[in-house]
Design a protein that fits this description.
Order of helices and strands: HEHEHHEHEHEHEHEEHHH
Number of domains: 2
Distance between the termini: 63 Å
Number of strands: 8
Structural class: alpha/beta
Shape: elongated
Helix content: 40-55%
Strand order of the largest sheet: 1-2-3-4-5-6-7-8
CATH architecture of the largest domain: Alpha-Beta Barrel
Largest sheet: 8 strands, parallel, barrel
CATH class of the largest domain: Alpha Beta
Oligomer: single chain
CATH superfamily of the largest domain: Phosphoenolpyruvate-binding domains
Bound molecules: 3-methyl-2-oxobutanoic acid
Number of helices: 11
Length: 282
C-alpha cells in the first residue's frame, strides 16, 4: 500500500513522538529510493553545488540549477515532504525578492516548503515568505552560505555569547512562523537546550542526539562524495568502491569482447539476412 504524503502538520506533530528523518536528493532515481525508504523529508540542498556539480562552495549554485534539480526530485516524491533550499542571493537581497524566489520553488518545482539559512536580515525574509503562505524551515549554526561571516566552517555556539545568540535565533525563527529548524554543527548540549525551548522540531546535522530529527547529505551516507568528510557524517556503504569496480568490469569485458554477449544482442532470420546480404553484393 502506498504511504500518504507527509504534510507540514505531520512534521510538527512528530515532535516528542518519534525522531524525524531527513535526507538530501538532487535527482529522480535517488529521490525515488529515499522516498520509497519512507524518509519523512527530502531536502534539495544547495549542497548540490559540492556533491553533484563539483563546485567549491554552496554559494556558487543559483536559482536555475536549484529549480532544475528540485523538479526531478518532486517527480519522484510520492511520500516524503520536499523542501527546496534557497540558494545564496535568492533571499538576501530583499524580502520581496525572497518571497518571489520562494514562490518559484512551490509553483515551478512543486516543492512543499523552502529552507533558508540564518543571516542578519533572515527574519524579515522569512516573515515575507511565510506571510505569502509558503512554509519555511530555518537553518542556524554553521551556515555555509555565510561561513566567511561566522569564522569559517567551524562548530558554532561554543562560548556563551555565540550559544545565547543561537538560542535567540531559534526562538525568533519559531516566533516568525518557521515550521522546523536545522541545527548544523553545534555542541549537543546547546542543541538540547534549543530543542527543549522550541515547540517546533529541530533537525540536527553535527548537533548530537537530542534534536527532534536528523539530516544527512545522502551522498555522504552512501560514500559517493569523497572530496571532504566532516566528523559528523556516518558512511553506511561505500558506493564509490562498488561503482568503480563495476566500471572496471565493464571496461575489461568490452575490451575482451565478453560484452555484449548473445543474450544482449538482437537476431534476424537467416532468410531475411541472406536477402540483405545479396542485395549488397557489387
Ligand atoms: O544543503 C544541504 O545539504 C543542507 C543540509 C546539510 C542541511 O543544507
Amino acid at each position: 500500500m502506498e504511504e500518504a504524503k507527509i504534510t507540514i502538520q505531520d512534521i510538527a506533530s512528530l515532535k516528542g513522538k518519534r525522531k524525524i528523518t531527513m535526507l538530501t536528493a538532487y535527482d529522480y532515481p535517488l529521490a525515488d529510493l529515499v522516498d520509497k525508504a519512507g524518509i519523512d523529508i527530502i531536502l534539495v540542498g544547495d549542497s548540490l553545488a559540492n556533491v553533484v556539480l563539483g563546485l567549491e562552495l554552496t554559494t556558487m549554485v543559483g536559482m536555475q540549477e536549484m529549480l532544475h534539480h528540485s523538479k526531478a526530485v518532486t517527480r519522484a516524491a510520492k511520500h516524503s515532504l520536499v523542501i527546496g533550499d534557497m540558494p545564496y542571493e535568492s533571499y538576501q537581497i530583499n524580502p520581496k525578492e525572497a518571497m518571489k524566489n520562494a514562490k518559484r520553488f512551490i509553483e515551478e518545482a512543486d516543492c512543499d516548503a523552502v529552507k533558508l539559512e540564518w543571516f542578519d536580515k533572515c527574519l524579515e525574509a522569512a516573515k515575507e515568505i511565510i506571510g505569502s503562505g509558503i512554509p519555511v524551515m530555518g537553518h542556524i549554526g554553521l551556515t555555509p552560505q555565510t561561513a566567511d561571516k561566522i569564522g569559517g566552517f567551524k562548530v558554532q555556539g561554543k562560548d556563551i555569547s555565540s550559544a545565547l545568540g543561537l538560542i535567540e535565533q531559534a526562538i525568533e525563527l519559531e516566533k516568525c512562523g518557521c515550521f522546523a529548524i536545522v541545527l548544523e554543527c553545534i555542541p549537543d548540549k546547546i542543541a538540547c537546550l534549543i530543542t527543549e525551548r522550541l515547540k517546533i522540531p529541530t533537525l540536527g546535522i553535527g548537533a548530537g542526539i537530542h534534536c527532534d530529527g536528523q539530516v544527512l547529505v545522502t551522498y555522504d551516507l552512501l560514500g559517493l562524495f569523497q572530496r571532504f568528510k566532516p566528523k559528523f557524517i556516518k558512511q553506511y556503504v561505500n558506493l564509490s568502491e562498488l561503482i568503480e569496480k563495476a566500471i572496471h568490469d565493464y571496461k575489461r569485458e568490452v575490451t575482451e569482447k565478453k560484452f555484449p554477449a548473445k543474450e544482449h544482442s538482437f537476431g534476424i532470420s537467416e532468410e531475411e539476412f541472406k536477402k540483405i546480404f545479396i542485395s549488397l553484393k557489387p
